[in-house]
Amino acid sequence: MFFIITTLKGNKMELINLKLSVTNCFLIKNKEKYILIDTGYEYEWELFCKRLYEAQVSIHEISHIILTHHHDDHCGLLNKILEENNEIKIVMSYLAKDLLLKGENDQSHGGGLINKRIKLLLSLSLKRIKIMITLKKFIDKKTNLKFPPYKTREKDIIILEETRLKDIGIELDGTIIETPGHTIDSISILFDDGDCIVGDAAANFLQFAGTKYCVIYVCDIDEYYKSWRKIISKNTKQIFPAHGEPFLVNKLKENIGKNKKKNMVMNK
């Protein structure tokens, strides 16, 4: 079996990793309901439902979805999930609202691949090598960078600044913080016990290619590392990324600034 549900219990918080094809989505128990962090790609509906079944959680037990940002591998299933449970409230940055309505990953704010090795890997098709098969699956599904457009509803919750979860009706001890850099609308969820779900504000993916705990694509590398400094400054202990395994915050401290803008392969 290729999937294991990771459950962490501490301070009465239960965190379940719903591991999809390349994206970690997370479920967090909130009294009798669950909070879902991100949704995965549009094509992953059957896999998403399978993961919920394995976690013994019903879609009707989900009260909120927090989007770490608008990209297709994080919001692709929004509309499909709401078809099943329209009572769910979507929580997002105020900057995500218009981007979700466009239905495609925003590329209007510059940025590029983190280094030339990543570009090379994306151009290869070495199907006999397991890691290349995994990478090619990731890229083939991402090439169009589109997702079903989502129009925010009156019941949805728009985050304008750093916000305590309890202030938006989620009875958990934590705070939503702004962590831009990968995208302009990126947010993270920092719990008082030091666990931080960061979306793509950091990653543990393709380390052999020199990612150094960055995602492969960054909009603004300076803002990205500024967000790392914010995460570090708030006494974070453990990072839960959307791509790769959890890791200790010391990895951010050790790698901050190591990827340089001059080494990036920028959009033309």
Descriptive keywords:
7-stranded mixed beta sheet; 25% helix; 268 residues; 6-stranded mixed beta sheet; globular; 16 strands; alpha+beta; Metallo-beta-lactamase, Chain A; disordered N terminus
Task: Walk me through what this model shows.
The protein has 268 residues and is of the alpha+beta class. It has a single domain, classed as Metallo-beta-lactamase, Chain A, CATH 3.60.15. It is built from eight helices and 16 strands. The strands form three sheets. It has a seven-stranded mixed beta sheet with strand order 1-2-3-4-5-6-8, covered by helices on one side. Strands 9-10-11-12-14-15 form a six-stranded mixed beta sheet. The radius of gyration is 17 Å and the shape is globular. Residues 1-11, 125-133 and 135-143 have low confidence and may be disordered.
Shape: globular
How far apart are the first and last residues' alpha carbons, in Å?
42 Å
Q: What is the domain tally?
A: 1
CATH domain class: Alpha Beta
Q: Spans with pLDDT under 50 lasting ≥5 residues?
A: 1-11, 125-133, 135-143
- Strand portion, in percent? 15-25%
- Please tally the β strands and state the result: 16
Order of helices and strands: EEEEHEHHEHEHHEEEEEEHEEHE
Tell me the name of the CATH homologous superfamily. Ribonuclease Z/Hydroxyacylglutathione hydrolase-like
CATH hierarchy: architecture: 4-Layer Sandwich
